[in-house]
Design brief:
Chain B: It is found in: Cell membrane. The complex is a heterodimer of chains A (about 725) and B (about 325). By secondary structure, chain A is an alpha/beta fold. Helix content of chain A is about 30%, strand content about 20%. Chain A has an eight-stranded mixed sheet, sandwiched between helices. The longest helix of chain A has 18 residues, at about 200-215. The two termini of chain A are about 40 Å apart. The two termini of chain B are about 15 Å apart. The chains are: A alpha/beta (about 725), B mainly alpha (about 325).
């Protein structure tokens, strides 16, 4: 390819690749203009990676889209310069910008599921970019597209180029997006949360791929993310955004060792580390101010533990150099504050003890749920012609849940963790009889749920509540919060009239809302508050078990911790049991007593948090745990990257379901025999694997309660 | 391979549906008040002659025997004989169906050609003057019943402007130009009335697609507005519109009943009307069956088109 010559030509230019000066983007609204990106200035050198972090709504994406001039009405770039390769992009015509987009500056979007056009083959979507910007023939573009698919690690690129996006897994689709981004060898890639929508093992692979592509092509990357773990792993320097302003920029090491802005400190502290115990998860209290109604002083002052009178009245501080390092911060007290120490208190009490001597509250035995493959009455009927003759009819099933057993004791939280498609949500729905089980037994307080009729089930529903991922779609938008919560009480004859109103008020206070919230409608609340309403609704009928299906996945990181703390607190007070479903092993770590790791409809490992997070490990658990990004740039992580993707449950592998991807596969035994879920170290820790205990114990525990104490004294580097 | 499965499944469903249609068609015509024999022989007929005719027509046999007899006949391609015309029902329908088909196809074509570009144009100029005027144009179309548009079109284009004949039908094989000039007004009137639904659907479908992430990415790849609208958006947006078009086509077939009266168009609509007026039971049953078949096949065609436009359906759709 002709890349090397052009690249050197461009490198001959002086100055940084990208120099953003005072960029200002506003949105016109009925209540006046809102400044989503306020006088943002930073620069980026060739080949460098810069992270842009902050909570949602901080203005990260708007800033990034402004660089490409992709701001839609009613938004408008109202000031500043975006100097790219020595030219101000804001002075270019739209036609000139189109020649730059996808060519010199490319974007890798967030969601691989919705960012590819479903009716175009991936080949068409890659080649159209190439042909738009390079003067090559159709066949040459196709060759280049196959090459770029090869480069991003899509197997059998030549055969797969004519496939449609839906025929690829999420991780593979993200690779296609990376291929599109790099297809014209751009100088700058803007990656907008490129791994947020992915499972943790896939996320690690995509980050590695991005690093590798960047090194190979010498591309600069602007990485937009809310995940400081991702930043710590990939970036050279970092910009922190808050309420439309860039409040701190620093080199990666400086930012983590010695943050200069209190917001940066809070952000770092709000990330729970997988290997640390907390009495209460660290939270970032309060919320970002409404961009249409900013405080008169520093925007962060209302949430800042160090705020003084000067901060509240003195206007918005400007971004100035601090100390002798690389840091710049927009804080009046940046020079005086020492923010190098974490403010999170160390764990004291340790984990609570659960009494598991009596009857379990909830017990699932050999549960199976098979779905018909395909939709409709004849959906699973499959005609196949094999070697001529008459077609044969077969019925195919998706074994979503295949022989799963576990129990939950009073006051206990049991987690179900696994990547998307492992069947964890189906387990919950089937166990509660929201879906009819194919086979197996479910007991609630000794009553066989699987044998009960629908009316008996309905009266038991009072004892078993559910909280869903998306509160917005699970709360009736036409009812007030008071009606939603009160209705549940009336339905189960718990309280009516004045007593009901009183109890609704108490409950709302219990979940951290005001009594006045009862008269509001769900849309008037933020996502976190809506989830609080959903929790109040579940608590209204005084259940003994609450099934939480990814209850915090749709929430901002800072809000996640608040909701998790609330759930923990409620459990301590009311002795409720939780069945907690999550793909996020970090969340599971901090809220569950015991956890079942699921893979392809089966349980791979089951035990207490200490057991599962310590050796011996099931190889799948080990790779899951190793892939969690740490918000600490000094930490070396020895990550295990899994080959390939989760096999289709219609046609699962023979033997052990994990054998196709297992890094520790022994050989034939794994392909032929399904390993039993057997107790290891003689107790209540179960692993389904043919390996010996020693072979599963080669890695250290992921739990080291005193970790923080060891690492925090100013790491010299 | 899944495509065969899909077609196989759909044909199975259609057979079941058709069975129910025959049941309903048979039931409805037999519940209708009025004795066929009486209708044929007139009010002065004697009881004996009535009974003789009923025996001859097989009307005094049990209903289920009559039904089975009728269905067996249908399976052999025999739809019975029209009481009023004394000709085989199949022949009567075969003669008129192509004329109605011509009208409905032309009307749907006119509607699609008008409404899809209008819908796209309205969507990319959302809430601006072109959007509002396109919507208003379309709403005028559905604001009045089809036959009224027929009359307006006759008044304006035939009587005042004298551009087209007021009505009648000429076979295209005899006189192509004459046939087409007579087609313009009825097809135009009906097409105009159908435009609104398809245009509204195209517009809202386009708006939805234009806010998708992949449209954003296409812009970030440097694609021009034309490529984004035509290549990326329209092919996605058209998918739900296809159902509406198929539905409108079947609706056009219902609509022809009145419109054919207005334009003296001797199609299946007028045949149905005549059949009902004269209690011509075999003919009514035949007309119901044929219209139901057309309805089913147009929807089937829409589903196949769906599969053509949406690769996710082509492979069985589990994702």
């Amino acid at each position: 390819m002709s890349a090397p010559t052009t690249a050197t030509d461009r490198e001959a230019d002086d100055g940084p690749l990208l120099d953003v000066r005072g960029l200002k983007t506003e949105f016109r609204t009925e209540g006046g203009p809102i400044v989503a990106s306020n006088e943002v200035s930073f620069s980026l050198d060739r080949g460098e990676t810069m992270g842009l972090v902050g909570e949602s709504g901080a203005g990260k994406s708007v800033t990034a889209r402004s660089l490409m001039r992709l701001i839609d009405s009613p938004g408008e770039i109202t000031g500043g310069q975006v100097v790219f390769n020595g030219e101000d992009l804001l002075q270019k015509t739209e036609a000139e910008m189109r020649d730059i987009r996808g060519n010199r500056i490319a974007m890798i979007p967030q969601d691989p599921m919705s960012s590819l056009n479903p009716v175009m083959t991936v080949g068409e979507q890659i080649t159209e970019t190439i042909r738009r910007h390079q003067d090559v023939s159709k066949s040459e573009a196709r060759r280049l597209a196959i090459e770029s698919m090869d480069d991003v690690g899509i197997p059998d690129a030549e055969e797969r180029i004519d496939d449609y996006p839906h025929e690829f897994s999420g991780g593979m689709r993200q690779r296609v997006l990376v291929a599109i981004g790099f297809s014209c060898e751009p100088d700058l890639i803007i990656a907008d949360e490129p791994t947020t929508a992915l499972d943790v093992t896939t996320q690690a692979k995509i980050l590695d791929l991005l690093n590798e592509m960047q090194e190979r092509e010498g591309t600069a990357v602007l990485m937009i993310t809310h995940n400081l773990g991702v930043v710590a792993q990939t970036c050279d320097h970092v910009g922190v955004m808050y309420a439309g302003n860039l409040v701190e920029t620093a080199e990666l090491g400086d930012l983590f060792d010695r943050p200069r802005h209190p917001y940066t400190r809070s952000l770092i502290d709000s990330i729970p580390e997988v290997d640390t115990d907390y009495d209460e998860l660290p939270t970032l209290d309060g919320a970002m101010p409404d961009l249409g109604d900013l405080p008169s002083g520093c925007n962060f002052a209302p949430r800042c533990p160090h705020a003084t009178e000067a901060c509240r009245t003195g206007g918005d501080p400007s971004l100035d150099a601090v100390g002798d390092g690389s840091s710049r911060a927009a804080c009046l007290h940046a020079d005086d504050l020492d923010l190098s120490e974490s403010t999170v208190p160390e764990a004291g009490a340790g984990r609570r003890d659960i009494d598991r001597t009596g009857e379990p509250l909830f017990e699932v035995r050999n549960l199976k749920k098979y779905f018909n493959a395909g939709e409709g009455v004849f959906g699973n009927v499959h005609l196949s012609w094999s070697g001529g003759g008459l077609p044969t009819v077969e019925r195919r099933h998706v074994k979503a849940v295949d022989d799963v057993s576990f129990d939950v004791y009073p006051g206990e939280t049991v987690g179900l963790v696994g990547e998307s498609g492992c069947g964890k949500s189906t387990v919950a729905r089937t166990a509660l009889r929201l879906l009819e089980p194919t086979d197996g037994e479910v007991y609630f307080e000794g009553q066989p749920l699987h044998e009960l009729g629908s009316s008996e089930i309905r009266s038991l529903r009072r004892e078993m509540q559910m909280i869903f991922q998306d509160p917005q779609s699970s709360l009736n938008p036409r009812k007030t919060v008071g009606q939603i919560v009160g209705r549940a009480m009336e339905k189960h004859g718990i309280a009516t009239g004045e007593e009901k109103r009183e109890r609704v008020g108490d409950l709302l206070e219990r979940v951290g809302l005001s009594r006045a919230a009862a008269s509001k409608y769900p849309h008037e609340f933020s996502g976190g508050q809506q989830q609080r309403v959903a929790i109040a609704h579940a608590l209204a009928v005084e259940p003994k078990l609450i099934v939480c299906d990814e209850p915090v996945s749709a929430l901002d990181v800072s809000v996640q911790a608040q909701i998790l703390n609330l759930l923990n607190e409620i459990q301590d007070d009311e002795n409720i049991s939780f069945l907690f479903i999550s793909h996020n092993i970090g969340v599971i770590r901090h809220i569950c007593d015991r956890v079942a790791v699921m893979y392809l409809g089966k349980i791979a490992e089951f035990g207490s948090i200490e057991q599962v997070f310590s050796p011996p490990f099931h190889p799948y658990t080990e790779s899951l745990l190793s892939a969690v990004p740490h918000a600490n740039p000094d930490r070396e992580t020895d990550r295990i990257l899994l080959e390939g993707s989760v096999p289709s449950p219609i046609n699962p592998p023979s033997g052990c379901p994990f054998q196709t991807r297992c890094p520790k596969k022994i050989g034939d035994v794994c392909e032929q025999d399904l390993p039993e879920l057997e107790a290891v170290d003689g107790g209540d820790h179960y692993i389904s694997c043919h390996l010996s205990d020693e072979e599963m114990s080669q890695r250290e525990s992921f739990i080291t309660p005193s970790k923080r104490a060891e690492t925090s004294p100013a790491d010299s580097d | 391979m899944s495509m065969y499965n899909y077609v196989f499944r759909r044909v199975g469903f259609m057979a079941v549906t058709l069975f129910f249609v025959t049941l309903i068609a048979f039931a409805v015509t037999n519940i209708l008040p009025g004795d066929v024999a009486l209708l044929i022989l007139g009010p002065n007929a004697t009881d004996q002659s009535l009974e003789a005719l009923q025996t001859q027509l097989g009307l005094n046999r049990p209903l289920y025997v009559q039904y089975i007899d009728w269905v067996v006949g249908l399976l052999q391609g025999n739809m019975g004989e029209s009481l009023r015309f004394g000709e085989p029902v199949a022949q009567l329908i075969a003669e008129r169906l192509p004329r109605s088909m011509m009208l409905a196809v032309a009307a749907t074509l006119i509607a699609v050609v008008l409404s899809v570009p209008l819908g796209v144009y309205a969507a990319i100029n959302q809430n601006e003057a072109p959007d509002v005027s396109a919507s208003m144009f379309a709403f005028v179309g559905i604001s009045m019943p089809i036959f009224l548009w027929g009359l307006v079109f006759i008044l304006v284009f035939a009587v005042w402007l004298n551009l087209f004949p007021t009505g009648g039908y000429v076979s295209p094989s005899e006189d192509l130009v004459g046939s087409l000039t007579r087609l313009v007004l009825p097809a135009g009137a009906m097409g105009f009335a159908l435009t609104a639904y398809i245009m509204r659907m195209t517009r809202s479908s386009m708006l939805e697609v234009l806010s998708e992430e992949y449209i954003n990415l296409a812009r970030a790849k440097g694609m021009s507005q034309r490529v984004i609208v035509l290549r990326h958006a329209l092919k996605n947006a058209i998918i739900p519109v296809i159902t509406v078009i198929a539905f409108q086509f079947s609706y056009a077939f219902g609509g022809v009943v009145v419109l054919e009266e207005v334009f003296f168009w001797p199609g299946i609509g007028r045949l149905t009307l005549t059949a009902i007026q004269s209690r011509d039971i075999p003919l009514i049953q035949g007309c119901i069956l044929v219209v139901a078949l057309i309805y089913m096949f147009s929807n089937f065609a829409a589903d196949l088109l769906y599969a053509y436009f949406d690769p996710r359906i082509r492979y069985g759709g589990d994702d």
